[in-house]
Amino acid sequence: EAQVTQNPRYLITVTGKKLTVTCSQNMNHEYMSWYRQDPGLGLRQIYYSMNVEVTDKGDVPEGYKVSRKEKRNFPLILESPSPNQTSLYFCASSSPGQGADTQYFGPGTRLTVL
Amino acid sequence: SQQGEEDPQALSIQEGENATMNCSYKTSINNLQWYRQNSGRGLVHLILIRSNEREKHSGRLRVTLDTSKKSSSLLITASRAADTASYFCATVSGSARQLTFGSGTQLTVLP
Q: Could you say which of B2, B33, B103 has the minimum Cβ distance to residue A101?
């Protein structure tokens, strides 16, 4: 089944404790990205990657890091989480090279930083 | 930055009625997409309309695009209770093909 998976789905942590949210897709998509969703603000893009070893900042990259060492994986790293990073996070992938911009979303990771 | 702005923010209708949501955006686009999100879940792609298209249909969905007004509308006909969800428009622009979302319309369909 074609899908985007994220882990963990729920995470409660404390300020300053490094964490990684994993994202994996099995559709051989070149493009992957991370969004955060906050009430009243819609989805805002954090980082995106056009392909392996190619990443770029989205609209709200501060406090986040990403890496794209393999085509299927695109982990989101919070080196020193803070309470303002409490949010619902979504990973997505697509294959613009085939002319399709449709993004496939993961189920989301609800992060709470105390 | 938010590219699309949906209107209304919330819409409540009776089952069987049509629901219309509007989206306005600010810059030129490659295409515009509509997504649906059930509460707290991932987004599901509904329909994509390219910048050179004016109207597109998919089942009970009808999307229009007016690039001169930088606006789009999503019409859901004969709504069902299961259509209750948040609906987002998203625009794709530039060579990086970033997807920029609006803040969404919360649709409630009453049985």
A: B33
